[in-house]
Design brief:
mainly alpha; Growth Hormone, Chain: A
C-alpha cells in the first residue's frame, strides 16, 4: 500500500517541480535582453519560497499531507499561467509570488511525506528514488517548457504548465486522508516563545553539510540560468538545461544508492568533485559539447550532495525539521544564485564567479567528508 501512496506522491511532486524549474530557467532565457528583470523575477520567486518553508510542518500537522500537496499545486498552476501570459512587470512578479509561495510549501511537504510513509531502514534509498523520479521529470519538462516558449510563445507554455499543475493537484487528492496530521513532532506554535521554537526546529542541524549544500545549489543556479544564456551562442540553451536536470536526476538516485553502499563521506566527496570539474569546464571550455558536459557534471554533483545531506539531516532531526532546513539551504542557494548570476551576466563576471564557487564547493565537500568520517 505504501508503495502505491509513495508513487502517487512522487508523481504529483514531479509535475510541480518540473513546472517550477521551467519557470526558473525560462525567464532568464526569454528575457535575456533584460537581465535585471530576470534577476528580479528569480529573486522575488525564491524569496517567497524561503518565506513559507518553516511553517510547512505545522500546516501538514493541521491539514494533512494530502491538502498541503494538492492546494499549492493548484496555486502553482495559476502562478505559472500568470508568468507565462504576463505582458507587464507587475503581472510577471505576481506570478513569481504565487509560484514561489506554492513551491516553498510543496518541496518541504514532499520530502517530509516520504519520511512519513517509508520505514527508517529504507529511507535513504527511498529519498534517492524520490529525487531521481522528480528530477527526471524536471530534466524532461524544463527543456521542453523552454523549447515550447521559444518555439511558440510564453503564453502557450503558461497554459501547458497550468494544466500540468492541475493534473498534479488531482493526483495529490488521491493520497490517503490524515497522513501527517497530528504528527508527534511538536508544533512550534505551541512553544512558550518564538526563540525557543526556533531552537527546537534547528536542534541537531548538520551546519557544515548544509553550507556545502548551499554552495552546490548556487552552482546549480549557474547551470540553470547563466550557463544556458552562454549556450545561446550555439542555440544550445534547452540542451544545457536538459543536461543539468538529467545529471541532477541521476545524482539524486546515485546519492541514495552510493550512501547505502560506500557511505556518506565517499558519496559527498564524489559529488563535490563532479561539481568542481563541471563548474570550471563550463566557463573555460568552448563549444556545445563542453558546455553540455559541464552542465551534466554540475547536475550530477548537486544531485548526489542533495540526497546525502537530506538523509544525514533526517538521521539527526525530526523529519519535518530536516526537510525545512534542507529546503532552506536548497532554495536559499537558488535565490542567492538567481540574483548573483543575473548580476554576473550583466557585468561579465560569470566565468570568475563559477570558478570561485566551484573551488569553494570542493573545499567544503572535503571538510564535510572528514567531519562525517570522524563521527562515524
Amino acid at each position: 500500500m505504501n508503495r502505491v501512496v509513495v508513487a502517487t506522491l512522487t508523481a504529483a511532486m514531479a509535475l510541480g517541480i518540473a513546472v517550477f524549474f521551467t519557470l526558473y530557467s525560462l525567464i532568464p532565457v526569454t528575457r535575456a535582453d533584460d537581465p535585471a528583470l530576470s534577476s528580479l523575477f528569480v529573486g522575488v520567486m525564491m524569496a517567497c519560497v524561503l518565506a513559507v518553508q518553516v511553517f510547512t510542518p505545522a500546516l501538514v500537522r493541521r491539514f494533512s499531507l494530502r491538502l498541503v500537496i494538492a492546494v499549492p499545486l493548484a496555486v502553482l498552476a495559476l502562478g505559472a499561467l500568470m508568468a507565462g501570459t504576463a505582458q507587464g512587470t507587475l503581472l510577471l512578479l505576481a506570478g513569481a509570488v504565487l509560484s514561489g509561495t506554492a513551491f516553498g510549501i510543496l518541496v518541504v511537504a514532499g520530502a517530509q511525506g516520504v519520511a512519513l510513509l517509508v520505514p527508517p531502514t529504507h529511507l535513504g534509498r527511498a529519498l534517492g528514488a524520490y529525487g531521481l523520479v522528480t528530477m527526471a521529470a524536471t530534466a524532461l519538462g524544463s527543456p521542453a517548457g523552454v523549447q515550447l516558449a521559444l518555439t511558440f510563445s510564453e503564453a502557450f507554455f503558461g497554459v501547458c504548465a497550468a494544466l500540468a499543475g492541475l493534473l498534479g493537484a488531482g493526483l495529490a487528492l488521491r493520497l490517503p486522508r490524515g497522513v501527517g496530521a497530528a504528527e508527534t513532532e511538536p508544533a512550534t506554535a505551541a512553544e512558550p516563545g518564538p526563540s525557543r521554537g526556533l531552537r527546537r526546529l534547528l536542534a541537531g542541524a548538520p551546519w557544515l553539510a548544509l553550507a556545502l549544500l548551499l554552495s552546490t545549489v548556487i552552482l546549480l543556479s549557474h547551470g540553470l540560468t547563466s550557463l544556458p544564456v552562454l549556450a545561446t551562442a550555439f542555440s544550445g540553451a534547452a540542451v544545457v538545461v536538459f543536461a543539468v536536470q538529467a545529471g541532477n536526476a541521476l545524482g539524486r538516485g546515485f546519492g541514495g544508492e552510493g550512501e547505502a553502499r560506500a557511505g556518506a563521506p565517499v558519496s559527498l566527496g564524489i559529488g563535490a568533485l563532479c561539481l568542481a570539474v563541471g563548474g570550471v569546464l563550463g566557463v573555460l571550455g568552448g563549444g556545445a559539447v563542453a558546455v553540455s558536459l559541464a552542465g551534466a557534471l554540475i547536475g550530477l554533483g548537486v544531485g548526489i550532495v542533495q540526497t546525502v545531506v537530506l538523509h544525514v539531516a533526517m538521521h539527526r532531526m525530526a523529519a519535518g525539521s530536516a526537510s525545512v532546513v534542507w529546503n532552506l539551504a536548497v532554495d536559499g542557494g537558488l535565490w542567492t544564485g538567481g540574483i548573483l548570476w543575473g548580476a554576473a551576466l550583466a557585468s561579465g563576471l560569470v566565468g570568475a564567479g563559477a570558478v570561485v564557487v566551484s573551488l569553494g564547493a570542493l573545499a567544503l565537500g572535503a571538510a564535510v567528508a572528514v567531519q562525517l568520517r570522524r563521527r562515524g
